[in-house]
Amino acid sequence: MSPIPDMRTRLAGLELDNPIMAAAGCAGTGRELARFFDIARLGAVATKSVTLEPRAGRPAPRMSESPSGMVGAVGLQGPGIEVFLQRDLPWLQSQGGTAVVSVAGSGPDEYADVARRLTAAAGAAMIEVNLSCPDPAAQGRDFADVPAEAARVVRAVRGAAEDGVPVFAKLAADAADPVALAEACVEAGADGLSMVNCLRGMAVDPVTLRPAPAGGVGGVSGPAIRPIAVGCVYRTRAALPEVPLIGMGGVQTGADALEFLAAGASAVAVGTMNFADPSACVRILRELQQLLEERGVDRVGDVVGAAHRPTGAAVPGR
Amino acid sequence: MSPIPDMRTRLAGLELDNPIMAAAGCAGTGRELARFFDIARLGAVATKSVTLEPRAGRPAPRMSESPSGMVGAVGLQGPGIEVFLQRDLPWLQSQGGTAVVSVAGSGPDEYADVARRLTAAAGAAMIEVNLSCPDPAAQGRDFADVPAEAARVVRAVRGAAEDGVPVFAKLAADAADPVALAEACVEAGADGLSMVNCLRGMAVDPVTLRPAPAGGVGGVSGPAIRPIAVGCVYRTRAALPEVPLIGMGGVQTGADALEFLAAGASAVAVGTMNFADPSACVRILRELQQLLEERGVDRVGDVVGAAHRPTGAAVPGR
Amino acid sequence: MSDNGPVQTRSPVLTVRRVDAYHAITVVAPQIAERFRSGQFLSVGVGGEHSGMLLRRPFAIHDVKPDYGGTVEFLFAVRGPGTAWLAERRSQDLLDVVGPLGRPFPLPRDPVNCLLVGGGSGAAPLFPLAHALRRRGCRVDFVLGASSADRVFSAISARRIAETATFTTDDGSFGVRGRVTDALERVAADARSDVVYACGPMPMLGRVAGAAGRLDLPAQVAVEEAMGCGTGLCMSCVVPVVGEDGFTRMARACVDGPVFRAERVRFDDVGTIPFDALGAPGWKPWSDDPGAEGAPEREAG
Amino acid sequence: MSDNGPVQTRSPVLTVRRVDAYHAITVVAPQIAERFRSGQFLSVGVGGEHSGMLLRRPFAIHDVKPDYGGTVEFLFAVRGPGTAWLAERRSQDLLDVVGPLGRPFPLPRDPVNCLLVGGGSGAAPLFPLAHALRRRGCRVDFVLGASSADRVFSAISARRIAETATFTTDDGSFGVRGRVTDALERVAADARSDVVYACGPMPMLGRVAGAAGRLDLPAQVAVEEAMGCGTGLCMSCVVPVVGEDGFTRMARACVDGPVFRAERVRFDDVGTIPFDALGAPGWKPWSDDPGAEGAPEREAG
Ligand SMILES: Cc1cc2nc3c(=O)[nH]c(=O)nc-3n(C[C@H](O)[C@H](O)[C@H](O)COP(=O)(O)OP(=O)(O)OC[C@H]3O[C@@H](n4cnc5c(N)ncnc54)[C@H](O)[C@@H]3O)c2cc1C
Ligand SMILES: Cc1cc2nc3c(=O)[nH]c(=O)nc-3n(C[C@H](O)[C@H](O)[C@H](O)COP(=O)(O)OP(=O)(O)OC[C@H]3O[C@@H](n4cnc5c(N)ncnc54)[C@H](O)[C@@H]3O)c2cc1C
Ligand SMILES: Cc1cc2nc3c(=O)[nH]c(=O)nc-3n(C[C@H](O)[C@H](O)[C@H](O)COP(=O)(O)O)c2cc1C
Ligand SMILES: Cc1cc2nc3c(=O)[nH]c(=O)nc-3n(C[C@H](O)[C@H](O)[C@H](O)COP(=O)(O)O)c2cc1C
Ligand code: FES
Ligand code: FES
C-alpha cells in the first residue's frame, strides 16, 4: 500500500492544501458550487473577475457549444468591487474557502483601484490579474496582446496590492508570444503566472449565418484547448523555471491535471468542466490523488515539471 | 424544388468546380484518397508541403489524440521536389485533379527554388506557401510568427512562380496578430490566404510523463480548433474583404464548411477529418450542396461572407 | 450539500416512450423526485463518456412518481444532436442527471382559480403544477397551444386534471386556430381566474404577460433561455429582470428563475442589455453608498 | 474505387464475445470479407457520432466467414477509452469500419514448412494465415507467447490448425516459462521450418528477426505502430525500413506494411530517424540524378 501523497503545493508565498482550484468566471461566487460540495476542500476558488463598477455584460445568447468545448462571451458581468467585498468575499471566507480574487479593468488605474480596495478589506489569498480585457488604448486588442501594456497593468496591481499577497498575471494562449508576455509580466512584478485564458474564436449559426455569440468575438474554452494550454505551460516553464504557474485549459480528469503538473504547473484550475459536471473539481482532486498514490508519489511537488526531465531520468514514483 | 446550386468558386485567377479541397499534408499524394473516391470530384487537392530535398521527418510516435482533435508532429516528411515532379504531380494531373502545390523551406531561397522548379515543370494550379516552418534566423520561431519574415518568403515565391498561377500564403492561427500577418503577406504579393494551419500544442503521456509527441511541440488540428479558425477567417475577411481566402480547421460536415464560407472563405479545405473518415471530402461536398439547395441558394458565392452582412439584412436563399 | 439543493446522479433509464412529436424519458432518481417542486428542471449530460458535446441539456420535469423509490419524467422534441442522442437511449442505460434546478412556481396559499397557459413542449412543467394546485383545492383551467396537432402537449391529461382545457394550433389542426393569447382572455373571464401561470417560448410569454397585465391578473412565467450550465456558474442564460428596487439586472434564468413574476421580466428587451440595466455600457452608479446598490437576494442565487 | 482496395462500411455487429482476456467482435461486412487476405487489418471509428475521439482504432482481422454474405472478426484487449467503448457494443449496433487495410503476408508458392510466431493479441493475424497456408499444403507450426495464461491467444484453435503448437508465458502460468524466441529455434529445428511469419510487439519482432537471421530463414513480420489514419495519409506510423536500393526510408506501417520482410526493418532504430535515412537531418543527396533517388513502389503505397 502506498501512503497517501502530500497534496500541498506552493504558489509564491501561498501554500494551498492541494493543487486543484476552480477557475475564474467558472465558479460563480462559490455559493453555486457549494450546493454540490464543500468548497473548503479545494486548493482555492478563483472569483469571477471583479471590476470597479457593476457590469451588465453582453447580451444573450452568450454561449455556443463547439466540439469538446464552447465559445462564450459573457463580458465580465458582475456586481462591482464594493458588493463583492460586502457580500461575496466574506461568504467565501466564512466557508473556509481560499479566495483567489481575479481583478479586471479598462486600464492600469482601474485595476489598481480594485486591488487597493481589496487590500483595504483583506481576505484575498491571492490576486489574479485578468489581462484578457480590451485595452481601450489599443483598438480591439487586449492587454495580454501587448506585453508592454500587460506589464503596465501588472505593475499597477503589484503596487496597490498588500505585500504578502501574491499577484499572479493571467495570460492568454493566443498572445503574440506567450513566453515574451510571461517574461514581461514577471519583470513587472508578477509573483507567478496563470495560464491560459480562453482563445479567441467564434461560430457561425448554421441557420441565420450570423456570428455566435453575437459580435463575432468569443472565447474558446474546454478540453478542445487542452493541448494548446499544456504547450503554453510547458514552454513557459522551460523559459522561466523559477516562476510558479497555475495551469488551466480543458482539465476534465485527474490525468489531465497530472499533465499540467508534469508540464510545469504547481496548481491546476478547472473552468468549463464545472458547467458540465458541478462536482468536477472534487472528482478531479480525488482522481489526481489516486493517480499519484498508484504511482507511489509521496508529494505532489515531485511531479511538478516532470516532463522537463532529461531523457532517461527516472519517472517520479516509478 | 430548388435548382442545383452552382458550386463554382473563384480563388484569385483560379476557378474551382466546387469549394471543397483536401488540405495540405492530410491527403497523402492523392493516391491514398483515390482508393475511396475519384479525386477529380474535389475542387482541389493540396499536396503535402514539398521541400527541395527529401526529408525524413520526426521520429515516431508522431501523433497523440486530443479531445475532438489531435496533436501531430510529422516534420514535413517527403521525397523532395524532384521526385514530386516526376512521380506525384503527373499522377494527380492524370487523374484530372486540380493540384494546389504546397511549398516549404528553411528560408526564402529554398522556397523560391522549389517554386522555380514547379514553374519549369508546370501543372500546379496554385502554389500555397506553408509559412509554419521553423525560421532558422529566428530561434524557435516559424516564418508565420514574424510578419516581416513571412513577407520575405511570400515575395520570393511570388517572384519565382509562374505569372498566371496564384500564390496563396498559408497562415497560422497562433500568429501574433493574424490580421497583421495577413496584411504583410498580401502586401508582399500573395494573391490570397489560406488559414489556418495547426496551433502549437502538446500532450503529456500520462504514464511516462513525457511530452507527446516527443520534443514538446506539435500541431493541434481537428474540430477542436474550428471556432478559432472560423474566428481568424472572419476577422481577416473583415479587414481585407477583397482578398480571397481558403478556410480550414476542423471541418467535419457540410454545415461546418458553410460556417467557413459565411465567415468569408471562398473555398474550404478538409484536413484531419480525412484521417477519421477517408470519404470525408466528398461527403462534406454532398452535404454542403444539399444545405445550399435546401436554403434555395443559387450560387455558392452568395453565401461567401454572409456573416458580415449588416444586422437585419436578408439571409442568402431565405 | 444542502438537503433541498440539487443533486447529481447516475440514473438508470426506466422507460423511453414516443408521445406524439415528443419523446418521454423516465429515470429512477429518488433524490431528485423527493426534492422536486413544480417549475423546476433537470439537466442531462449527452453523448456518453467521451462525448464532444460538453454542455448539459436542460429539460423541465414533467412528472414525478414514487415507483422504485422515486422516478422523474421529462419530455423533449428532437432539435439537435443532444436530443437526437437522448431519443436513442434505452431502458437501463445510465444518464448523468442533475436536478432539481431553479426556483419553483410559488403556490397560492388559498384555493384560488388558476389559469395555466403553455406553448409546445414548454407546457411540460404545467402538469405537475396543476396537480399541486389541485391538491390545494385550486381550480385549474388550461390553455395549451402549439404549431400543429401533434405538438399539443398531453391534451388528454390536461382534460383530466383541469376544469376546462382549451387548445389552439397555428394551423387549426387541433382546437382553435390561432395563438394561446387569443383564447386566454375569454377563458380567464369564463373561469374567473385569479392568477396566471405560463411557460413556453419567450415571445409567447411576453404576450401572456401583456394579456395578464391588461386583465390585472398576477402572472408567473417560466422562461426558456439557452443555458450553458443550469447551475448559475456560467452567466449565459441572462434575462433583463426588474428587481424590487426598481433597477434592471441581468438575472440568470437557471438559478434566479426560470420562474419570474411576469411583470418583472422585460420581454421586449430580451436578447439585449437595456441601456438602464445595472452596469450597462454608459450606466453610472447612482450613489456613492455601496449599500444602496443593493445585493438583492435573487442575484445571489 | 479499385476493386481490391479498402472499403468503408457501416457494419452491423453480429456478436460480441469474451475470449479469455480479449473481446471478439464479429461484424457483417461482405465487401471486406471478400477482399481480405491474411495479414491485413481494419480500422474502426469509436465513440459514436459526436465522439471527441477522432482517430480510428486499428485491429488485425482474425477471422472471415461466409455467413450473412461475409463476416469479419477482430479481437482486442481493453487498453484505453476507444477499446473500452468497443467492449460495450452489442449485437445490431452499427460500427464504422474501413478495411481491409495494408499489405498481406506473401504466401509461398510451394508447400513449405511455415513457423508462425505470435505475441499476445498480436497473434490474431496468424490464424487466417495458418488456414491459407494449410490450403496450400504447407506445414504449419505455432509458437505463441504472452505475459500470462489468459493472454495466450486461441490456444485451442492453434492446436487444431497446426502440426505442433508451443506456448510460452512470462510467468510460466501456461506452457513454457520464457519468451517465444526461447522456443523458436528448437521448434524451427524440429519442424524443419523453411520460413517464419511473426507478429506481436516490436521488441519481440526484433528478437524473432534476429533468430530467423541466425537460422538463415526468411521471415515476414507484421508490425504494430501507433496509427493516426490507417490509410497512408497522416505519416504517423513510420518505421525505418531498408529499400531494395539499400537506402533506409521512413515507411508507413499502414500502407507500406504492416507486413515487411524481417531483415528490411531496422528494429534497433524504431522510434528514431536513423542518421542515414533518406532525408534525415544532415543527410545529403547522393546524386544529382533524381532518378537515382528512386521512388520505390513501396513508398507510393
Ligand atoms: C429551463 C429549460 C427547460 C426546458 N425544457 C424543455 C422540455 O421540457 N422539453 C424540450 O423539448 N425542450 C426543453 N428545453 C429546451 C431544450 O433544452 C433544448 O431543446 C435542448 O437543449 C437542445 O439540445 P440539442 O443538442 O438537441 O440542440 P442544439 O441546438 O444542437 O443544442 C446546442 C446547444 O444549445 C443549447 N440549446 C439549444 N436550444 C436550446 C433551448 N431552447 N433552450 C436551452 N438551451 C438550448 C443546448 O443546450 C446546447 O448547449 C428547455 C430549456 C430550458 C432552458
Ligand atoms: C496494424 C495494427 C493491428 C492491431 N491489431 C490489434 C488486435 O488485433 N488486437 C488488439 O487488441 N490490438 C490491436 N492493435 C492495437 C490497437 O489498435 C490499440 O490497442 C487501440 O488502438 C487502443 O485504443 P484505445 O483507445 O483503447 O487506447 P488509447 O491508448 O487511449 O489510444 C489512444 C490513441 O493511441 C492509439 N494507439 C494506442 N495504442 C496503440 C497501438 N498499440 N497500436 C496502434 N495505435 C495505438 C489509438 O489508436 C488512439 O489513436 C493493433 C494495432 C495496429 C497498428
Ligand atoms: C464562461 C466563462 C467565463 C470566464 N470568466 C473569466 C473571468 O471572469 N476571468 C478570468 O480570468 N477568466 C475567465 N474565464 C477563463 C477561465 O478562467 C479559464 O482560464 C479558461 O476557460 C480555460 O479553462 P477551461 O478550459 O477549464 O475553461 C472564463 C471562462 C468561461 C468559459
Ligand atoms: C498530420 C498533418 C500534416 C500536415 N501537413 C501539412 C503540410 O505539409 N503543409 C501544410 O501547409 N499544412 C499541413 N497540415 C495542416 C493542415 O493542412 C491544416 O491546415 C490543419 O490541420 C487544420 O485543418 P484540419 O483541422 O482540418 O486538419 C498538416 C496537418 C496535419 C494534421
Ligand atoms: S445556465 Fe449557466 S448561469 Fe444559467
Ligand atoms: S496511420 Fe496514417 S499514414 Fe499510417
Account of the 3D structure:
- The complex is a heterotetramer, with two copies of chain A (318 residues) and two copies of chain C (301 residues).
- With 318 residues, chain A is of the alpha/beta class.
- Chain A has one domain: TIM Barrel (Alpha-Beta Barrel).
- In chain A, 31% of the residues lie in helices and 19% in strands.
- Chain A has helices spanning 31-34, 81-94, 108-121, 147-160, 178-187, 226-239, 254-263, 273-276, 280-295; strands at 9-11, 14-16, 20-22, 44-46, 63-66, 69-72, 99-103, 126-130, 167-172, 192-197, 199-201, 203-204, 211-212, 218-221, 245-248, 267-270.
- In chain A, the strands form four sheets. Chain A has an eight-stranded parallel beta barrel with strand order 3-4-7-8-9-10-15-16, surrounded by seven helices.
- The two termini of chain A are 14 Å apart.
- In chain A, 67% of the residues are buried.
- In chain C, a hairpin with a 5-residue loop joins strand 5 (63-65) and strand 6 (71-76).
- Residues 287-301 of chain C have low confidence and may be disordered.
- The two termini of chain C are 15 Å apart.
- Chain C has a seven-stranded antiparallel sheet with strand order 4-3-7-1-2-6-5.
- The radius of gyration of chain C is 19 Å and the shape is globular.
- Chain C is of the alpha/beta class.
- At the A-B interface, strand 11, strand 12, helix 6 and helix 7 of A face strand 11, strand 12, helix 6 and helix 7 of B.
| Content of β-strand of chain A | 15-25%
Order of strands, main sheet of chain C, comes to: 4-3-7-1-2-6-5
Largest interface (CB within 8 Å) is between: A-B, 52 and 51 residues
Structural class of chain C: alpha/beta
Low-pLDDT runs of 5+ residues of chain A are none
Overall morphology of chain A: globular
| Terminal Cα span of chain A | 14 Å
**Which oligomeric state applies?**
heterotetramer
Please tell me the total number of domains of chain A.
1
CATH architecture of chain A: Alpha-Beta Barrel
- Relevant CATH superfamily of the domain at 113-222 in chain C: Nucleotide-binding domain of ferredoxin-NADP reductase (FNR) module
User: What is the name of the CATH architecture of the domain at 113-222 in chain C?
Assistant: 3-Layer(aba) Sandwich
Count of alpha/pi helices of chain C: 6
Tertiary shape of chain C = globular
| Count of helix runs of chain A | 9
Secondary structure tally: strands of chain C: 16
Give the % helix of chain A.
Answer: 25-40%
Structure summary, number of beta strands of chain A:
16
Order of helices and strands of chain C: EEHEEEEHEEHEHEEHEHEEEE
Strand order of the largest sheet of chain A: 3-4-7-8-9-10-15-16
CATH topology annotation of the domain at 113-222 in chain C = Rossmann fold
